[in-house]
Amino acid sequence: MSAPLIEVRDLTLAYAGRSGPIRAVRSASFTLGRGETLGLVGESGSGKSTLGAALLRLPGAAARRTEGTIVFDGIDLGALPEADMRKLRGARIAMILQDPLASLNPLFTAGRQIAEVPRTHLGLAWSAALERAAQLLTAVRIADPHRRIDDHPHQLSGGMRQRVAGAIALAGSPDLIIADEPTTALDPTVQLQYLDMLKAEQRARGFALILISHDLAVVRRVCDRIAVMYAGRLVETGPAAQVLAAPRHPYTAALTGALPAPGRRAGSLTVIPGTAPSLAALPPGCAFHPRCGHASARCREEEPESRSSMAGSSACHYPLAAAT
Ligand SMILES: Nc1ncnc2c1ncn2[C@@H]1O[C@H](COP(=O)(O)OP(=O)(O)OP(=O)(O)O)[C@@H](O)[C@H]1O
Ligand SMILES: [Mg+2]
Asked: What are phi and psi of 72, to 5 degrees?
């Protein structure tokens, strides 16, 4: 098997809290091959954006790596000087941020913000870079691109802004794009169009994609692999078909609606009773145990290790497939 494009091992990321570090990502491990798509799913606050931003050491990301490694195409990103990381960012790893307004600069035209990437990374002259920007707007299915390159973000609809953010990510022809909830701001029809566009561009260009989402339906549509996050841990990883059809972790099962959970109303597929715990006050044992219909005394006391299983991993004392 060829080496994976990205390999994350035992990654722990912490924010500075008032009374000590708050570990938003704990001991996360996963790999992703070239051209593959990984869906990173989990409830709000589970640590998805923190993990995504850490993969390209996003400037301004407040979480610090306290343990573990991120190896991208053989390069240990933790050991890479910032000057080299800057060359990698945009050119080899790009990110589409959760909030398109936050990722676009209101002062500059869409064209300029896209053209900046090939100018910086490929050394193109402005005129050539702007022509490239217009081509990229066509790629992300924006009509009349030569007019749109002169628009400022406030002149674009939410869907168009998200497409411009996509064009910026595509502009450096990266090997990996991390898309953080790229469709939450869009209405359902536009969401599907955006995902299909991203998928078509992926087929044409061959980049690997990490798609962050709280929506399993979105992930199901586009991903080869799935990683399920709960309270900072990857509780289950594996091929999408396997994870969805035969989830091993009760949390995944609850998300997929495979298991009747106590108190769940019919039809409320992804609503799991109870709330995710605060990272500053995690319950002892397995963080999911207060919401888990299968929890035993051991789950309340001992945090389960992540164990490899088939083509993935799960972190449960009593993984479902083994229990039945
Ligand atoms: N800058 C920060 N300082 C301190 N804590 C933070 C910071 N950013 C995020 N956190 C905390 O880290 C945890 C994980 O946040 P993160 O944004 O990664 O979650 P998420 O899974 O992306 O959630 P969402 O689905 O709402 O986007 C949360 O508990 C959050 O409160
Ligand atoms: Mg997020």
From this structure: -115, 115
